[in-house]
TrEMBL record:
<protein>
    <submittedName>
        <fullName>Zf-CGNR multi-domain protein</fullName>
    </submittedName>
</protein>
<dbReference type="InterPro" id="IPR010852">
    <property type="entry name" value="ABATE"/>
</dbReference>
<dbReference type="Pfam" id="PF07336">
    <property type="entry name" value="ABATE"/>
</dbReference>
<dbReference type="Pfam" id="PF11706">
    <property type="entry name" value="zf-CGNR"/>
</dbReference>
<dbReference type="InterPro" id="IPR023286">
    <property type="entry name" value="ABATE_dom_sf"/>
</dbReference>
<dbReference type="InterPro" id="IPR021005">
    <property type="entry name" value="Znf_CGNR"/>
</dbReference>
<feature type="domain" description="Zinc finger CGNR">
    <location>
        <begin position="145"/>
        <end position="187"/>
    </location>
</feature>
């Protein structure tokens, strides 16, 4: 669920946890969406589904800085791929650096029917896991399906995992419906 600073919220599924992370705030005009203000905010974000990585070692200011850099690298790389442009060198370097750290390690629970992250759980491990997912996405079969929302003023990116590969909107609830309403009003105005 994403929240608009002007009010309201909408359901958004980016199709990959790393892309969800890319939408957790930002710089410049996206600073109004920022949710990573303090180190603990990064811990709160990674603890949420679907990652569910409850950190057992306090998040440091350095990890917060690395998290924001990774988030920007994911954003930049996703937009470059969606526009069929070469990936920015800086984004590639940040992704590779984050992925080089040890990732989260899955562990089967004692009952053998569920999994959890093996302790200790560090924010740097969660960041590595997100970077590795983005690298796999950029180099895998869904790379050609990274899209930017087709709305005129929506920069959201997502993986189009629909069977026909025709998803155009970040969310039908938000941009899809707005576009349909705009088209309907235009047809009505022409018919009047």
């Amino acid at each position: 669920m994403l929240h608009d600073p002007k009010g309201g919220s909408f359901w958004f599924d980016a199709g990959a946890v790393c892309l969800d992370f890319a939408h957790a705030g930002g710089e410049g005009q996206y600073a109004v969406f920022e949710i990573l203000h303090e180190p603990g905010d990064l811990g709160d974000w990674v603890a949420q589904p679907p990652l569910n990585a409850v950190v057992t070692v306090p998040v440091t200011a350095r990890e917060l800085t690395a998290g924001k850099a990774l988030r920007q690298a994911i954003w930049d790389a996703a937009h470059a791929r969606a526009a069929d442009r070469p990936l920015p060198e800086k984004a590639v370097a940040v992704l590779n650096r984050a992925a080089a750290a040890p990732p989260l390690a899955p562990r089967l629970t004692g009952d053998g029917i569920a999994s959890e992250w093996a302790a200790p759980v560090r924010a740097s491990q969660a960041l590595s896991t997100l970077a590795r997912e983005m690298i796999a996405l950029l180099s895998g079969p869904l790379a050609e399906r990274i899209r930017e929302c087709a709305s005129d003023n929506c920069p959201m990116v997502f993986v189009d995992s629909s069977r026909p590969g025709t998803r155009r909107w970040c969310s039908m609830e938000r941009c899809g419906n707005r576009n349909k309403l705009r088209a309907y009003r235009a047809r009505e105005a022409m018919g009047s």
